[in-house]
Each structure stands twice: as structure tokens, then as C-alpha cells.
């Protein structure tokens, strides 16, 4: 293991302290166990938007706290769901009387704990509902889409939900538009090297120098199979083909695209992937109405990338372009 | 006489005081089939809950709720999450009430069982605590004396544990060792027996 860290067991808390030190206007650490990251002050008179999940994916999840984004976020250990308590604390923090939407990645522990947190909140007369992000097309076929993992699509769902809440949508409207976004998002990743969980101390999986794995999950879950490393154009084509098979893009469609780095891949290589993706989608007559390239959902030092597409309608496009401000997303 | 927050406090503290050897026994049992953390979960869970007893309100629903919350702070164990789920389901049923008739305890257990099935995905017959609960519910229905209720519950739990001993586990990590689990007590079912025994004054 070759990392710039102190004691592995302090990794998560010290990263949070670093984030709060760098951006005190955005992040504050709270909760009984210091595992609720939140805005310095709650924003009154709007639906609260929160999330939570395992650590190791910054900016996902807590990095997206900010104006027009999340109000608070429960922080777990690396790749492990937080327990219910910081989730409930997040809901309590974000609640200003209009209800709270929880954006949850499709992982067993995250879902179960958020279900409990929502029930607990109900006992305190706070209405909290959730929307589940399950965008990884490699994780399960379309007929079992409820089994898909949540990956970089979380970023779009968060942006849409945060913008809707800031625009004055009520809780049900916010949940509905977040669900609409989730339904229109598809992602696929490719891994080149493994990540290393600090407390594990060694790589999560082995992969040969000349191998890649398309569809690998952000915790190293198996993808659709190993293959030899080829050109970035070929790899991008394979990824885009899978996305298009799952949800076709037609001439005249307006789509958002996120070419995301998993942590250790140079942004320059992401631009190579973007170049190919743009050509492919232009061939189909689609318009790329919103483009992001960078490290938006990571897996520590894993090398690799993911491509996320979101089909847009007027409402989604408007919310995607609405004002938002956090260290990792501004517009 | 009815079940109140005070009864809940006493029960939790009583189990907490006697949980040490139960924890060791459950760790050993669970280590043969699961990840060996059942005892730790119980010890930490009852310690957390007993720390929460003082602040428990007289509203029994909210008190059960405090107990559930304390239980969830024991991270990482599905058994802990399911126990919290059960406490919450029971709490929801009696929110706003300061007491509940003993005869209604079976209904609380039933709602706890329903919630655990919904959350955990196990079914009756899978050789889990659900089978213990089903046996207890059948036995204590219509019982209005607390002492008789506890005795009946404990003997139902023992019977369930023993009658499932020679069946395979059908869910959870133990399912991987389904054949190996034949002839072994299910750790969760065994835990229910010990917890009920510990409730005796």
C-alpha cells in the first residue's frame, strides 16, 4: 500500500476534517459520532435533500453538499454503509418543515439503513422519502434493473433533486423529478487497476497489467468480463454500445454526458474518451446538451473511467443548468 | 397491570447485567456458521440500550424507539439491524400510549415479525429468529399474565430452537453451509432462548 495517509483507522475522519478546513463555508462536521457532514446552516423554507453511503468515492457522496445540491450527508467507513444514526441526523438537520428527500445508492446496507432512518424520522413527525439510484447497466440486465448498483448517476440525481428543492418544488414533486432523472440515467465503467481500502492494506482485486474489466463496480464488484487492454476508442465504443443497447439514443435527442475518472486516470485520458463519445453520439444525431469531464465519482486510486448518459427533457435540462455551488460542481 | 416503559427499562437492564456469558456462547455458536459476531452484537446492543434507558420517555412507542436507535448504533451486524427493526415496528404500534395490555403483546410481536420479514427477506421455515417468533406468538396469544407469558414464550422458543436443529439454514451466510448447519442450533434462535431466560427476575 502506497498512500499519503496517517493511521488507516483515522482515514475517513481526517479526510472530513480536511474538507471542512478547506471549505468552511460549505462543509461542517456534525452528529454524535462526527459522521454527518452538513452545510454550516440549514436552508429554511425548502425540501431538504440528503444522502449517505460508504466513503472512498469523494466527491460522492458528501462532496456534493452545497447550494442547489445536498444539505447534509451521512458518512460511512470506506466502502461500508453508515449506520442509521448519521442518516437520521442528516434528515433532522435538513428538515425545515417541508420534508426531506434521501438520495440512496442501490446497495443493501444503504437502503436498509435509510429505510430505518425514514421510519425513525416519521416517529418525530418528519416526512422523509427516498429515491434509489441504480444506473450501472453492467450490474444486471434491463429486466432486473432493480438489482443494478448505483454509480456516477448519483451526481445527476443529486443535481436535479437539489435544484428542484431550491426552486420551491414540494417533497413529492422533488421525489418525482429525482426519480425521473434516475429512470433516464445509464452508466458503465471500466477498471484498469484496483483500489486499496486503507484498513485492508492491499489491493481489493488483482488485474494483470495488460487487462481491463468493463462494467466493474466502484468497489471492485465483477463486471461483464476481463479483456485485453486496447485503444481508448475501442474501449469507449464497447462502453457506449452497452449504454445504447440498454437505452437507445435517437436523432434529435438531447442528452447529458459525464465522462468520469475513477481516481487514478489522468483527465487527459478522460478527454480522449470524451472525444470518441461525442463522435459516436453525433453520428446518431443526438445533441450533447450538457457535458462534464473529470473526477466526479471515484474509487480511491482505482484507474479507469465511467460514462454516464442522461436523456433530457425540458424540465431536467432546466434543473441541470440551474445554479449550484460546491467545490466539485458549479454552474 | 400492563406493560409500560418502566417494564422495558427493567427488562433491558436485567438482560444487560446477564449478557456476558450469553455473548460468549453466541459468539462460539455463530462462529461455526456465520461471522461470529452475534455475541458482540448482543453485548454491545444491550449495553447501548441500557445507557439509553434513563432518557426513555413514558410514551411506550417512543421508548421502544429510543431502544431501536440505541441498537442501530451497533454497526455492521444484520442481526442488530433486524432487532432494531423489530423494536421500531412494535414502537410504531403503540406510539402515544403509556401502557399496553399484556394480552396485546402478541400483536406487537406480530408486527415486529412482519417488519423483519419485509426488511430482511427471510421467510418462515428458513431457520431464523422468525421461526422462534412465530412459535412464541402462537403460544402467548390471549395470555394476560406477565409471568405465564414469559414462561410460555421461553418454552416456545426452546421448542422452536430444538425442532429446527436438524433442518438446514436457508438464508444468510449460514445458507452457504446449509448441509453443515444440519444438527446445529441456529445462533439467532438460540439467542432468543437465552434472552428470554435472562428476563426471569
TrEMBL record, chain A:
A cellular-component GO term for this protein? cytosol
DhaK domain location? 7-329
Q: Which UniProt keywords apply?
A: ATP-binding, Kinase, Nucleotide-binding, Transferase
Gene Ontology molecular function terms on file: ATP binding; glycerone kinase activity
Give the PROSITE patterns listed for this entry.
DHAK
User: Which Gene Ontology biological process is one annotated for this entry?
Assistant: glycerol catabolic process
Protein name as it appears in the record = Dihydroxyacetone kinase DhaK subunit
Which organism encodes this protein?
A: Epibacterium ulvae
Q: What is the lineage of its organism?
A: Bacteria, Pseudomonadati, Pseudomonadota, Alphaproteobacteria, Rhodobacterales
From TrEMBL, chain B:
**Species the sequence originates in:** Epibacterium ulvae
> What one GO molecular function would you report for this record?
glycerone kinase activity
One Pfam family this chain carries? Answer: Dak2
- Can you give the residue ranges of the DhaL domain? 6-201
Pull one GO CC term from this UniProt entry.
Answer: cytosol
InterPro entries assigned to the protein according to its UniProt record, in alphabetical order: DhaL_dom, DhaL_dom_sf, Dihydroxyacetone_Kinase
Q: Which SUPFAM superfamilies match?
A: DhaL-like
Give the UniProt keywords, A-Z. Kinase, Transferase
* Protein name as annotated: Dihydroxyacetone kinase, C-terminal domain
Q: What PROSITE patterns is this protein classified in?
A: DHAL
Its GO biological process terms?
A: glycerol catabolic process
User: Residues of the signal sequence?
Assistant: none
Amino acid at each position: 500500500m502506497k498512500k499519503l495517509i496517517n493511521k488507516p483507522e483515522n482515514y475517513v475522519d481526517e479526510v472530513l476534517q480536511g474538507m471542512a478546513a478547506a471549505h468552511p463555508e460549505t462543509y461542517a462536521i456534525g452528529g454524535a459520532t462526527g459522521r454527518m457532514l452538513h452545510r454550516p446552516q440549514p436552508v429554511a423554507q425548502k425540501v431538504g435533500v440528503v444522502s449517505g453511503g460508504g466513503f472512498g468515492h469523494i466527491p460522492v457522496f458528501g462532496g456534493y453538499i452545497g447550494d442547489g445540491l445536498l444539505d447534509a450527508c451521512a458518512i460511512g467507513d470506506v466502502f461500508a454503509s453508515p449506520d442509521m444514526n448519521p442518516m437520521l441526523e442528516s434528515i433532522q438537520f435538513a428538515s425545515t418543515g417541508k420534508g426531506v428527500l434521501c438520495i440512496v445508492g442501490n446497495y443493501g446496507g444503504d437502503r436498509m439503513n435509510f429505510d430505518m432512518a425514514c421510519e425513525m424520522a416519521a416517529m418525530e413527525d418528519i416526512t422523509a422519502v427516498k429515491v434509489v439510484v441504480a444506473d450501472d447497466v453492467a450490474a444486471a440486465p434491463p429486466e432486473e434493473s432493480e438489482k443494478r448498483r448505483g454509480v456516477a448517476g448519483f451526481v445527476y440525481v443529486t443535481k436535479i433533486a437539489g435544484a428542484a428543492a431550491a426552486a420551491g418544488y414540494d417533497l413529492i414533486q422533488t421525489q418525482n423529478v429525482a426519480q425521473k432523472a434516475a429512470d433516464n440515467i445509464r452508466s458503465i465503467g471500466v477498471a484498469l487497476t484496483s483500489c486499496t481500502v486503507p484498513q485492508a492494506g492491499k489491493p481489493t482485486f488483482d488485474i494483470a497489467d495488460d487487462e481491463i474489466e468493463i462494467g466493474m463496480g466502484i468497489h471492485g464488484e465483477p463486471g461483464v468480463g476481463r479483456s485485453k487492454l486496447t485503444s481508448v476508442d475501442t474501449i469507449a465504443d464497447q462502453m457506449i454500445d452497452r449504454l445504447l443497447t440498454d437505452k437507445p439514443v435517437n436523432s434529435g435527442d438531447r442528452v447529458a454526458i459525464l465522462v468520469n475518472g475513477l481516481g487514478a486516470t489522468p483527465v487527459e485520458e478522460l478527454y480522449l474518451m470524451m472525444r470518441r463519445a461525442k463522435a459516436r453520439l453525433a453520428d446518431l444525431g443526438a445533441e450533447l446538451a450538457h457535458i462534464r469531464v473529470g473526477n466526479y465519482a471515484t474509487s480511491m486510486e482505482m484507474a479507469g473511467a465511467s460514462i454516464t448518459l442522461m436523456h433530457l427533457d425540458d424540465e431536467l435540462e432546466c434543473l441541470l443548468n440551474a445554479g449550484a455551488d460546491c467545490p466539485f460542481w458549479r454552474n | 397491570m400492563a406493560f409500560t416503559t418502566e417494564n422495558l427499562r427493567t427488562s433491558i437492564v436485567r438482560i444487560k447485567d446477564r449478557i456476558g456469558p450469553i455473548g460468549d456462547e453466541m459468539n462460539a455458536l455463530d462462529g461455526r456458521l456465520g461471522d461470529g459476531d452475534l455475541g458482540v452484537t448482543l453485548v454491545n446492543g444491550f449495553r447501548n440500550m441500557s445507557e439509553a434507558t434513563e432518557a426513555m420517555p413514558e410514551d411506550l412507542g417512543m421508548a421502544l424507539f429510543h431502544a431501536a436507535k440505541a441498537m442501530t448504533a451497533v454497526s455492521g451486524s444484520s442481526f442488530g439491524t433486524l432487532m432494531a427493526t423489530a423494536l421500531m415496528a412494535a414502537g410504531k404500534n403503540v406510539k402515544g400510549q403509556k401502557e399496553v395490555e399484556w394480552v396485546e403483546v402478541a400483536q406487537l410481536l406480530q408486527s415486529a415479525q412482519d417488519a423483519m420479514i419485509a426488511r430482511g427477506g427471510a421467510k418462515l421455515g428458513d431457520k431464523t429468529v422468525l421461526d422462534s417468533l412465530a412459535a412464541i406468538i402462537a403460544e402467548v396469544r390471549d395470555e394476560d399474565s406477565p409471568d405465564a407469558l414469559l414462561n410460555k414464550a421461553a418454552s416456545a422458543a426452546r421448542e422452536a430452537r430444538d425442532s429446527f436443529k436438524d433442518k438446514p439454514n436457508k438464508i444468510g451466510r449460514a445458507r452457504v453451509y446449509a448441509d453443515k448447519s444440519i444438527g446445529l442450533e441456529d445462533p439467532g434462535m438460540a439467542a432468543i432462548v437465552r434472552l428470554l431466560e435472562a428476563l426471569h427476575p
